[in-house]
Amino acid sequence: MRSPPIPEMATQEVQLSETLAHLKTESDTLKGKLEEERAKLHDVELHQVAEKVEGLGQFVMKTRRTLKGHGNKVLCMDWCKDKRRIVSSSQDGKVIVWDAFTTNKEHAVTMPCTWVMACAYAPSGCAVACGGLDNKCSVYPLSLDKNENLAAKKKSVAMHTNYLSACSFTNSDMQILTSSGDGTCALWDVESGQLLQSFHGHAADVLCLDLAPSETGNTFVSGGCDKKANVWDMRSGQCIQSFETHESDINSVRYYPSGDAFASGSDDATCRLYDLRADREVAIYSKESIIFGVSSVDFSLSGRLLFGGYNDYTINVWDVLKGTRVSILFGHENRVSTLRVSPDGTAFCTGSWDHTLRTWA
Amino acid sequence: MSSKMQSSGSIAQARRTVQQLRLEASIERIKVSKASSDLMRYCGEHAKNDPLLMGIPASENPFKDKKPCTVL
Question: Whose CB has fewer CB within 10 Å in chain B, the N or C terminal residue?
Fold first, then answer.
């Protein structure tokens, strides 16, 4: 049992707890002020403004190609800028590069770990990055020689203290942005493996990230198990905006093509749209009948359509402006885990726990 | 860890939270009506170039072809 504190220490402890209480009060006051400021500008709903926009007709989209070859759940995929190649990664530990037109496999790498949760294509098309339970992000240059052992050329770039959940090259092959189960995001120099900037602010695992379109400047958005979506300044490491309206983990975030907004998909079975200049959520995409989580979201080229891959094996297509669902797509035989629209917007690709990828148009 | 150290650790954390909130509270915002009409305008301007929205004919979409195109 602790001996009673001497009077001097007791006073100091009281002073510290008073400061703590004072800071807590200030924190609560600021949160209240933030809500007030945001509410003042909430003069109308997006779908109300969009009433005058013409409705969308029937959409006929179906599976155009099925890519088979992974031996276990597909966890992530990314498009090459050439609009036809795709990289995918799986729980089976393999990373495969496909020609999505012909469905041919062009490269395959076996990682030293299972659960390769993240993969990304380099802007040049000459390399891919991937990682997962190994807590790292590694870059593999793609060789024209099919017989060359890609694993030998592997370069370890990022080191986290927990799993890698997402990775993305910035606008060149020289830098990679990563997010991790360790609660942080980080920016790395590919050549030296040096940490250029780290981003602290999430209170739990960070599950996803997306870079702002290059015209909008150096920011990115991340989503996590703390139900928050944070917008970051890449140069300073500062969190500049934070949104906390989801009721569960945020599995996917994607910028609207103009860079003025972003969409998110969550385990709470909703997708949401946040406008950065209004600094608030402006739309929720949900239905009572949709009760399974959203794993991944992406916009069509104009931003009018939002595609969501769901844990109930379906893809729901939403009218971004009106907030209504325009189509539901079936085909996968297990959870849709990843979804990306092609760079020229002619198709989108999904990856699933059913071991396959599908392209849809 | 003495309770004094715990308190000062929490204080540092609380100070960071207050700093962050001050920053977030001070940004400039626009009305939702303005933000919405900007989003709508962007959609409208880019709609005709959105293949998934417009639906381009099968002959022009390499994914819709039954036989892949080959350059001879």
Answer: C
